[in-house]
Design brief:
By secondary structure, the protein is of the alpha/beta class. The chain has 9 helices and 8 strands. Helices cover 38% and strands 15% of the residues. The chain starts with a strand and ends in a 10-residue tail after the last helix.
Length: 268
């Protein structure tokens, strides 16, 4: 079973050929594409998009890089929509939420205090609605973990994981899987490749983060797409010395565990 647990399919990069992108994913037998929201302006867009094709699922949340222009009213809207759609089988998580300490705060990002307020508030919503979370953790793993220790959130996925083995184990101990995708396909990504090989498969899920983090074979910085999950799985199989079918089976089982909304998908 091929699952893309993190894909911004609503992004403007797909506006001209989104149907063709979905068709290519279906041709590669991608059986689920999870589309996370990033701000209040695309909450409804990701929901409608996920309902437009069989393999679509979605998450609602406010991305740390969008916090700069967000207000508490956006959190109230998020609460309202989570209440309204809590029985929607396509809603599988709260996300993309978290912290980003990579982007310079003054010129492009939100101050840490505001990021942390929105992150903590959304963790509380995840607990209230008993939903897992899709975490953004760029240069912020330790602080993301600090807030998780204070929370009773049910787990989820640490998206685009690039931390240490110690940090990886701390996320896993708290019921999270680690998302790996295009970055793992680069031979120079030694730390990510080491984690991909040494961590148990029960800790890993596949993702693309499309249209971003294009894999190594997408030359000239071409757009990433969800169909690339198939080749990402083959790369992980080669690194671990396992069959592609075993990689797909185990990572799908993990995804269904950490995102129970996907549990209805049959593992093959």
């Amino acid at each position: 079973m091929r699952l893309d647990t993190h894909c911004h399919l609503d992004a403007s990069e797909f506006d001209l050929d989104r149907d063709a992108v979905i068709a290519r994913a279906q041709k590669e037998q991608i059986q689920a594409i999870v589309i996370p929201a990033v701000n209040a302006g695309n909450f409804e867009r990701v929901r409608v998009l996920a309902h437009s094709f069989t393999q679509g699922f979605y998450a609602l949340g406010i991305h740390p890089m969008c916090v700069q222009h967000a207000s508490e009213q956006d959190l109230h809207l998020l609460h309202t929509l989570l209440t309204r759609h809590r029985s929607d089988p396509k809603l599988v998580a709260i996300g993309e939420i978290g912290l980003d300490y990579f982007v310079p705060e003054i010129s492009q990002g939100a101050p840490r205090q505001k990021q942390e307020f929105f992150y903590e508030s959304q963790l509380a919503l995840a607990c209230e609605f008993d939903l897992p979370v899709l975490l953004h953790i760029r240069r912020s793993q330790d602080m993301v973990l600090k807030y998780l220790r204070r929370s009773q959130v049910r787990g989820g996925i640490a998206h685009a994981f690039n931390g240490s083995m110690q940090q990886a184990n701390q996320f896993v101990e708290r019921g999270f899987a680690l998302g790996i995708g295009g970055a793992m396909t680069y031979s120079r990504a030694l730390q990510i490749r080491r984690l991909a090989v040494e961590l148990p498969l029960s800790a890993l899920v596949l993702e693309t983060d499309a249209p971003d983090i294009a894999p190594a074979w997408c030359h000239d910085n071409r757009r990433n797409e969800p169909f690339q999950v198939a080749e990402i799985a083959r790369t992980l199989a080669l690194l671990r010395g396992l069959s592609e079918s075993e990689i797909l089976f185990e990572t799908a089982k993990t995804a269904r565990r950490v995102l129970p909304g996907l549990a209805g998908l049959a593992v093959d």
